[in-house]
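Troubleshooting log. The previous structure file for this entry was overwritten by mistake, so regenerating from the original sequence record. Sequence copied from the archived sheet and checked twice against the printout by T.R.
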Amino acid sequence: MFKRFTIGLNILFVFVPLALALEWFHADPMAVFFASALAIVPLAGLLGKATEHLTSHVGAGLGGLLNASLGNAAELIIAFVALKEGLHDVVKASITGSIIGNILLVLGFSMVAGGLRHERQRFNRTAAGVGASLLLIAAVGLVVPAISDVTAKEQGVAVDRALSLGIAVILFAIYLLNLLFSLKTHRHLYVGEAVDAEEAGEDAWPLRKSVWVLAVVTAVVAVMSEILVGAIEPAAKGLGLTQVFVGVILVALVGNAAEHSTAVMVAMKNKMDLALGIAIGSSLQIALFVAPVLVFASYLVGMPLDLIFTPFEVAAVTISVLVVGFVSMDGESNWMEGAMLIGVYLILALAFYFLPA
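Regenerated output below.
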């Protein structure tokens, strides 16, 4: 199954030169947008694969740190490029989209795929509870700046940015503490949450190959991200979509597509602990690592980013976190629960589509 998925993913590499050619000849922005988006999908998969092979050479502790930190490298690169272009709404929308996409769409499809093969699937309720609690804290980090902006709007932009920076520091500190918890003090709760090379039908890559592939693919992803972000505004207008919808739905799906498929496939093998770890863990990385890092980086490029999301983005994340927490509290899953998660995602996506620009 992993081999068939890899073959299908490799076909999409044809969009890398195609995106470059379309950009070079100043083709229609919609064609450039979709070509670069499809090109990033296999690149993100290769980026994740190189990270996994690299972690097998550096030991469990450092390996876990690398895997956690580099797990969303594609999304981080896309967001950073958008940040440099001053597209703050797209950056924040992609953060929102990645969080709700992982915990609703990815987890939902995983539960459906696994539930159709196995009547009842069990997972570690304690680990799932910790993940859900951390997501709730991340949601608080989004709610507070939005409330502050509404109740104390007269304080100005400087206060909003200072509050956002302080919250980013706290979220990043919680991320580091979570790494300590999951990799050191309570690592027994996360035993077995990995997809090894043998199961994927591959031999482990040499260390040098892992490093080189990681470096080269990161550079190519950066180029594709530049092309993608450059085409967002004209493509959104051409499609009649808002930048928020493009960021929340389309851009967020691009960087996560390969990881999404991995979660579904391991769920079909009755490994819901791993599927849940991929879905919730990826959302946590976005909320507690990627978002704070983008706030820090925004000061380096001279375009300070705040964490003031739109009221609906805040509501969407909060609803998603509460639904996932409720579904995972019993330590069991079935296909109907997965269908409900997908239904919530589609409802939110529809609402984002009809939101005014």
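The two ends are 42 Å apart (CA to CA). Archived copy saved in two places this time.
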